[in-house]
Structure to design on (218 residues):
């Protein structure tokens, strides 16, 4: 699943007329880079959620056949973004009953997507990265492959993870964040993680979009 429903406030005015996932970077929309990498990793069945200017995303990507994938959409409606947790919960009927990969449309990383997996005892497996300058305090503590909501040092959640549908078993429809679900699962030792030390960027501002443009063009 690619999370593409965000409004992109920090990207304005670029996102006033174009949804953030369709902003061009190094010759193609940002979300197309994700689709191509997922296809190269052998992941062919994709779900994309959308809200702000979502019809543009569907018109641009269609059924995904241009990239050798099958895309289905979870439309959240205009002006009603469901946040990360609510967006994934709404899409569960499309995602099935097995673990699934979720990635934010506004990050880019060279992590190996095809090898990510969920250990049998876990409800979630997250990819963590070094804390960027705009998020110096990090999110979670990683120790011996398990994640904790407390403890030092802390790393930053990359926006890429694998989840069991069971993580959302007690949820109800509507907007809600993902982090509280993860922290609750951490308290019972059911969230694993890994530290990716390769390239990663949160493409949340025009300056970072330019930075990614330079990286990919090179």
């Amino acid at each position: 699943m690619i999370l593409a429903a965000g409004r992109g406030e920090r990207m304005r005015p670029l996102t006033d007329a174009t949804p953030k996932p369709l902003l061009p970077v190094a010759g193609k929309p940002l979300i197309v880079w994700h689709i191509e990498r997922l296809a190269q990793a052998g992941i062919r069945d994709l779900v994309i959620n959308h809200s702000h200017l979502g019809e543009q995303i569907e018109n641009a990507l269609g059924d995904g056949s241009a990239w050798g994938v099958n895309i289905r959409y979870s439309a959240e409606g205009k002006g009603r973004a469901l946040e990360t947790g609510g967006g994934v919960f709404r899409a569960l009927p499309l995602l099935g009953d097995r673990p699934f990969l979720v990635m934010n449309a506004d990050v880019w990383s060279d992590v190996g997507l095809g090898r990510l997996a969920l250990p049998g005892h876990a409800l979630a497996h997250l990819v963590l990265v070094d804390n960027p300058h705009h998020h110096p305090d990090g999110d979670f503590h990683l120790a011996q492959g398990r994640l904790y909501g407390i403890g030092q040092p802390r790393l930053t959640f990359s926006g890429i993870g694998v989840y069991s549908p069971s993580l959302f078993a007690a949820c109800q429809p509507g907007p809600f964040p993902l982090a509280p679900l993860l922290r609750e699962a951490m308290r019972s030792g059911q969230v694993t993680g890994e530290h990716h030390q390769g390239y990663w960027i949160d493409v949340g501002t025009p300056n970072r979009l330019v930075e990614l443009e330079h990286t990919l063009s090179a």
